[in-house]
Structure formats: structure tokens, C-alpha cells
Amino acid sequence: MDLRIGGRTALVTGATAGIGLAIARRLAAEGATVVLPGRNRDKLDAAARSIAAEPGATPPRTVQADPATAEGAAALIAAVPEVDILVNNLGIYESKAFEAITDADWHRLFEVNVVSGARLAQAYFPGMLARNSGRIVFVSSESGLVPPPDMLHYAVSKTAQLTIARGLAQRTRGTGVTVNSVLPGPTRSEGIVDFLKSVASDPDAPAAALEEEFFRVHRPLSLLARMIEPDEIAGLVAYLASPLAAATNGASLRVEGGIVPTIA
Fold it and tell me: 88 lies in which domain range?
């Protein structure tokens, strides 16, 4: 599919693995110049090589900077002062009983999951409005709508992303800028096996058994009843980042396998 994003600059956070890497790979394959920020030079270089190896992909650019910190975000914005597409994908998660969540846990989840994306949107949104063109996508989660009881700090951070995205979208009226969110469900990515072990009755069970138990016990509403593949999310994000999605604005689009049990 020609998504008509060739020649555009796309900044994708959290793009050295998992969903972010799949999004970056898809955007590069569609001709966008993708910028990958991150803390770890080795991981950045490995991600860049994997993207550049894709047939027809535009070679990506890397910036060693952590948008989850004020200093890192400032360095990133200085290195990349203007983008056409911003995908706020950076995020962390964990399973933790509500009574055990500390102030430090709340601050850490919010700094990484919420404030990092807010900082970048704050920097790039005005320029998009001035140019009357741009796409911002927040990678939120179905947990923002159906909060897992053992991940409430994570769920609240994902609901906050939805609020920011919708509020920014309301400021785009009559322009060529859109701001949307996508809501993935549990996704097969780096670290997922460790997470499944942390909530399993038998952490030493085979990976397939861990996944089956997770959906049976912790995500029984899932219609897909399996982990979502990162590429399955990347396709929707790439569409929202393209001119083809001009009429989709202020939306929260679900790609979560049917966990949210509502018709809208």
C-alpha cells in the first residue's frame, strides 16, 4: 500500500524493540525518514541496521537521547527541531498490587509513559499547526479503558495519554494536523515472557502454557486469545501517520484483540 509518506520525517520513541521497532520499520518501508531516539547506542545501531536492511526502506537516523528525561528530550529536540510525524510509543509496564505501588513507582511510570510524550508533543505540535500539516500518534493501551487490577499505575498512565491526545486534537480544528491514539492489547515483545512469569501460577511452565494461562485468567475478555504481533499494530499506526487518515482525528483506535467489551 502506498501511504504517501515518502519524504516525511517521523520520530518514533521506544523504537529499538517491540512495537516501536515494528512501527519504525513500517514507516521506513513506506519512504519516511525515521528518527530513532534512545539511551543505548548499541541498541540504536542494531535497530537502525535492521530497518535499513528491509528492501526499499529509507535508512533511519539515530539520536542518543532519552525523552523520558527533561535533559534527554531537550537534546533530542535540539537535534531534530522539526518532524512531520510524531509517534509517542515509549512506555514501561509491570504487574504490582495497588497496596505495593510506591510514590517512586507512580513517578517513574508517569515520567516515562506520560511526560515523555507530552514534552515532545509540546515541542512539535505548534510547528505542525504553523505548517498546517502533521500527525501525532500516542501508543496507549486497552488498559486505559479496562484497567487491570494488578497494573493500576500503568492503566492510569495510559488513560492520561488518551486525555492528552484528545485535548490536542480539539486544537486542530480546521487544520491539516491530526492527533490520535491507538490502544494495543498484550503484545509479543521484548520482556513479555518475564512479565508472563511474574503473573503465572507456575513461572517455570513453557512459554505457550504461560501465554494460555495469562489469557484464561488475566485477560478472559480477549477474543483473539493470543499475543498480538508488533507488525499488527504497526500497520494501524502507519495508516494514522499518513495523509490517507486525514478524516480520522481525536480518535482512540483499538487494536487489542477484543478485550474492550463495548461496541464503541
Answer: 9-187+229-255
